[in-house]
Specification:
Layout lengths: L9 E4 L6 E4 L2 H10 L5 E2 L5 H13 L3 E5 L2 E5 L5 E4 L2 H12 L7
Antiparallel strand pairs: 1-2, 1-3, 4-5, 5-6
């Protein structure tokens, strides 16, 4: 997972045994790489709740997609599709395709 994270990604951090949601900024990413606290960082599974928070943006950009059993599939062409089970993966793909951040509301 550490090679997939970038500024703006949402992750779950477990600082003292509880799960907190955090949006990574530049300083937090630097600290992660410096102190190698990767065991405290967990990906956020794509749940129905998270899916609903980003669905309007996917529609607005004209993406064809499906969501089933915690997995989002973006259909980018007849031959290419992308499946994601984690929020940061979807954020990264969205940015790569649109050059815009996926806004979580």
């Amino acid at each position: 997972m550490k090679n997939e994270l970038r500024q703006g990604n949402y992750v779950m951090i477990t600082p003292f045994g509880k799960n907190d949601i955090m949006q990574l900024n530049e300083k937090e990413l630097e600290a992660l790489y410096l102190f190698k606290n990767w065991d405290r960082i967990k990906p956020i599974p794509l749940t129905e709740e998270w899916y609903r928070k980003v669905e309007k943006q996917l529609i607005k950009k004209g993406f064809s997609y499906g969501f089933e059993k915690g997995k989002l599939t973006l259909y980018l062409s007849d031959e290419w599709e992308f499946e994601s089970e984690f929020l940061h993966q979807l954020q990264n793909l969205y940015f790569a395709l649109t050059n815009e951040e996926l806004t979580i509301k």
